[in-house]
Amino acid sequence: MTTTTDQVTTADPPGARTPRPTTPRPRTSGGGGLGRYVLVRFLLIIPTVFILVTTVFFVMRATGDPITAALGGRLRADQLAERIHAAGYDRPIIVQYLEYLGGILRGDFGTTISDNRPVSEILTTYGAATLELAVYALIIAFLVGIPLGLLAAHHRDRVPDAFLRVFAILCYATPVFFAGLLLKLIFSVGLGWFPVAGRASTGAELQMLSLPDPSGFYVVDAIRTGDPAVLGDVLMHAVLPGVALGLLTAGVFLRLVRTNVIGTLATDYVDAARSRGVSERRLVRTHAWRPALIPIITVMGMQIAMLLAGAVLTETTFEWKGLGFMLSQYLQARDFVAVQGIVVLLAVIVAITNFLVDVLAALIDPRVRY
Predict the structure, then answer these.
(1) For residue 150, is pLDDT > 50?
(2) Average pLDDT over residues 300-314
(3) Which UniProt keywords apply (predicted)?
(4) What is the pLDDT of residues 78-98, one digit of tens each?
(5) CB 320 within 8 A of CB 330
(6) Which residues, listed in sequence order, are joined to residue 118 by a DSSP beta bridge?
(7) Could you tell me if 318 and 182 are in contact, meaning their C-beta atoms sit under 8 angstroms apart?
(8) CB neighbour burial string for 291-310, b if at least 16 within 10 angstroms, e if fewer
(9) Are 225 and 214 in contact (CB under 8 A)?
């Protein structure tokens, strides 16, 4: 008797166990899951900040003690030696370093040499202005970069796409101080639409300073005054600095969104939707844009670092009195104690931001393994 191959069946031997269906394993890399991933990322902040604090300290000391750098030539030799001894800068460098680390752990960053102010006071007074400017810049970057990136992907390899790619290159290749000066020349000096410099007019600042416990965030304080004119004045002052700094990041977002939307439009599930007659515009709006946002989140930490670096030039250009503006002032005064404190705080902000971005990326991006 003959049988065909597709009729042949193999029976399990008596007593054999039926294999159980396999279930997908959770995405882990050795046990511990998300909690271990977050803990490791958080602990990495400590060596990162430690290395940067150590580097900044010894680089600043490479030019000599801070008092000689700031006041040398303006005091007699005996007065200079007395100031150096009183500040403890004539002790061994390792002793100064250990004392500086102990002060940072207590929240004491020292006292500025040029104006004799606690560095911690400067950080709390001017830090809010820099964070506020960074928020404005991120809002501009999202509002400009994401829609234009979607538009460029929708018109791939056509005239709008070519124009937007050139625009993106100009955004992140143009020096931020040049963009700021150009915006001031056109919209402040030429057209008179926006204020030239500052965070608010004198009258608005006086109203906000009269509040009990002002926050330092001018938008918040302007809302607390209850005067729409004060809020409008604050927002008008914020437009040009926010645009100048935000375009730097908007160009990066535009190219990222364009590239990832084009890649998503070539996937199988989008081809299946296209075969069912879904329009290209709907494909971009409903299927492609959300996956394209994941790379933006993953590079957000680096972009925050770029914004803080650009804030130094932006604040100087628009006389926006934040940490960047004060950093430039203390650098001119060769006040290295203040410079140390400001750089360390900016480094801590970048490290914490990167930690938060890593955690967020692990939660929303299935490609991240932990």
Answers:
(1) yes
(2) 76
(3) Cell membrane, Membrane, Transmembrane, Transmembrane helix, Transport
(4) 677 777 777 677 777 788 888
(5) no
(6) 111
(7) no
(8) ebbbbbebbbbebbbbbbeb
(9) no
